[in-house]
Design brief:
By secondary structure, the protein is of the alpha/beta class. It has 2 domains: 181 residues, Periplasmic binding protein-like II (D-Maltodextrin-Binding Protein, domain 2), CATH 3.40.190; 201 residues, Periplasmic binding protein-like II (D-Maltodextrin-Binding Protein, domain 2, 3-Layer(aba) Sandwich), CATH 3.40.190. Helices cover 48% and strands 16% of the residues. The protein is built from 19 helices and 14 strands. The strands form 4 sheets. Strands 3, 4, 5, 8, 13 and 14 form a 6-stranded mixed beta sheet that branches. Strands 10-11-9-12 form a 4-stranded mixed beta sheet. It has a two-stranded antiparallel sheet with strand order 1-2. Helix 9 packs across helix 18 and helix 18 packs antiparallel against helix 19. The N terminus is likely disordered.
Length: 451
């Protein structure tokens, strides 16, 4: 370093010291924008300088689907955000159909600042319409706390638009503990063992399966779990984007395996007609009623909430859960759902909320209250209120192979309508594998053509 440069360097250090002493003597007061946390940084010259994280202020409105107990839990999360940002006013509004409400508000030029969307499809739709602001400013934090699968789901055309705050593990099978014990069986690990266990349960006088076929989405979930395991994640992605036709051999193979469950008519509570008249909540309660009508039900981690609120069954002694079985040697995999938070208005307070919701601390507030699974892999598992929730939530966040609910990735006319009806027809005629595949392909092609 030259003599002149050394002199200026020394003067700069003395000036910085003097300013620090003045600030300390004044009690550290300052204006609102500079009232945040301070951290030390080292310059190339070896000196230190203070960088200030600016305090955030203003007001933001947030829209999501959560009401009742879920609404109160999310409000607790927002209260945690406000504790960190006391100068921000947050208004929360719940909507039964946030997609429709948002479509109307975007059209009217008055969308909320931040909203939670129930599917990546809606995120993509609003992003492609130019209604969303990218959240690449939060990419590092999201990448640190979420697996690449979740980042990919929140990305549209190479820009990050959403962070998944609430998730659901749909690769779970819930069973009546007493029914399994009476039949002398253990939770099966393979699809072949599942069918053997189902036969044993039937011989003991109880139907193995409860199917909520009146709600077609339960059938899509069953198909998706089987397809991911028989076809693998690559073909799952290709089918999800319709790069692969529904008449592909991988689809007919999965339908054939699905038929071994829905086609086992004497082993389904109420038979075919009963299954197609049973809604999702009833499919759960009839497994845990006294006496039960079936021994197990295929559905997501949210089944636990229905059991707890609608039956007297107790965890571990009355009900328990196992992972969806492996099929033909398939590796562990999770099909799931989730709510993705996006930013419609670019404000400092909205950015701060997005960054906050990507942290483990935000998710842990709701996790402690129950009825919640976080895709955030850095959430402390011990905060979940019981062993069952802990196991299903951990499987979701730590999954090496994760894929989002396939029907939710489709155009609504197919994934939220035609696919339901076609699979309901399949329950009536489970041997019509080829015909079902052709119907699925026709409906998918028509929906993609319109989208």
């Amino acid at each position: 370093m030259t003599t002149r440069r050394r002199r200026w360097h020394l003067l700069a250090l003395l000036l910085a010291l003097a300013l620090a002493l003045v600030a300390a003597g004044c009690g550290g007061g300052g204006d609102e924008s500079a009232g945040g946390d301070t951290t030390a940084a080292t310059t190339e010259e070896g000196s230190t300088e203070e960088t200030t994280k600016e305090a955030v202020s203003g007001s933001i409105n947030v829209l999501a689907v959560w009401t009742g107990a879920e609404g109160k839990a999310f409000q607790a999360v927002l209260d945690g955000f406000k504790e960190q940002n006391p100068d921000v006013k947050v208004s929360y509004k719940a909507a039964k159909d946030p997609g429709q409400v948002l479509a109307t508000s975007v059209e009217g030029g008055n969308p909320p600042d931040v909203a939670a969307l129930p599917s990546p499809g809606l995120l993509r739709d609003f992003a492609e319409r130019g209604a969303l602001t990218p959240i690449d400013f939060a990419r590092d934090g999201i990448a640190e706390n979420f697996s690449q699968s979740w980042l990919d789901l929140g990305t549209v055309k190479d820009k990050l638009y959403g962070v998944f705050f609430k998730g659901a593990n749909k690769s779970t099978v819930w069973y009546n503990v007493a029914a399994f014990e009476d039949a002398g069986i253990e939770p099966p690990e393979t699809f072949e063992d599942l069918q053997t266990a189902a036969g044993t349960l039937n011989s003991s006088g109880l139907a193995a399966y409860s199917i909520g076929g009146a709600d077609g989405w339960t059938l899509t979930d069953l198909f998706e779990n089987i397809y991911l395991r028989t076809a693998g994640p690559e073909k799952y992605d290709q089918l999800a984007s319709h790069e692969l036709p529904w008449t592909d051999a991988s689809v007919t193979e999965a339908l054939t395996e699905m038929g071994k469950i829905v086609g086992d008519k004497d082993n389904v509570a109420g038979g075919v007609s009963g299954a197609l008249q049973t809604d999702f909540p009833t499919s759960v309660t009839q497994v845990f009623s006294d006496p039960p009508k079936a021994a197990m039900v295929f559905e997501g981690d949210f089944v636990g909430g229905v059991i707890s609120s609608e039956t007297k069954a107790k965890p571990k002694t009355g009900f328990n859960v196992f992972d969806f079985p492996s099929l033909k040697g398939s590796d562990p995999a999770v099909v799931g759902g989730g709510d993705v938070v996006a930013m419609f208005q670019d404000k400092p307070a909205a950015r701060a909320l997005i960054e906050y919701l990507a942290t483990p601390e935000a998710a842990e507030i709701w996790a402690k209250l129950g009825g919640f699974s976080s895709p955030n892999k850095n959430v402390d598992e011990s905060v979940y209120p019981d062993d069952i929730t802990r196991s299903t939530a951990s499987a979701l966040a730590q999954a090496k192979v994760f894929r989002f609910d396939l029907s939710d990735l489709q155009p609504a006319a197919f994934g939220g309508d035609a696919m339901f009806t076609i699979l309901q027809d399949f329950v009536k005629s489970p041997k019509d594998v080829d015909g079902t595949a052709k119907k699925l392909e026709r409906a998918a092609a028509a929906a993609y053509k319109k989208s």
